[in-house]
């Protein structure tokens, strides 16, 4: 929290500005503003909110929506909106299962990430952890998709199979290639083995998004004006949403898997740690979790969740329906 406070003060952002329903608490035209926004709504403490907390948040927001004022402070209103945004899907209004919320991505995902970084894993072990990691990713992608246009569940099940198969095949292929180079010095083999999860996971995560959300391009997604009025359904906006989400997922594993691999070898040489495999595993979990928590808001902040697109770039049918020069769409997370 101290880091977020320092960043907001440095950029001159008030901690709790005048409340604006449906708008981000921080400006979205800068990376810092988007970072602070995502850092706020993926707060793991929202996972412990009760049904009473959710009801209270909805009551506050509904009273504001109908024009009431002065019944709550700006801080209370922003916290109510944060709880709604972190817990409920923006398109369907349905509550997202905790493990598949972005707020739960680190608390529930650190186990599979730690598994990807196990020292000298067998091929079966590597494939298992890739499967576990990509299964979690697929469910997170599904839970946080753009759901403005319904899709049959069969399509998502097929996409899940393709996503996980691609991830496991890629991991197996890289591991197989490495083992073919038996003449390579063991130290070099160890380094390659350490860093194999990075390209494998980055590419697999990208393929995961393309598989799980590729149907959005075919059906299109809603585009709307600043007041939230839907103007039409656009395949062009869907392509932009998919591209931005894919780039986010491709970047996410970089600091997540790179930092532990740079830090752990040095820490493992410490006398108090080197004597105990259990301590090494514990240290690995701590470093991985910290890296995960650091990289998630950074990756999400590459693009705003509510993206903007020039009307001139959209389909002719949509351009004919509005005089607005820009329209908006939910990119998903």
From TrEMBL:
Keywords: Amino-acid transport, Membrane, Mitochondrion, Transmembrane, Transmembrane helix, Transport. It holds the Pfam family SFXNs. It is a multi-pass membrane protein. It comes from the Eukaryota. Its main location: mitochondrion. One of its GO terms (cellular component) is mitochondrial inner membrane. It is found in: Mitochondrion membrane. One of its GO terms (molecular function) is monoatomic ion transmembrane transporter activity. The chain crosses the membrane at residues 157-178, 280-303. GO terms for biological process: amino acid transport; mitochondrial transmembrane transport. Belongs to the sideroflexin family. This is Sidoreflexin. It comes from Pristionchus fissidentatus.
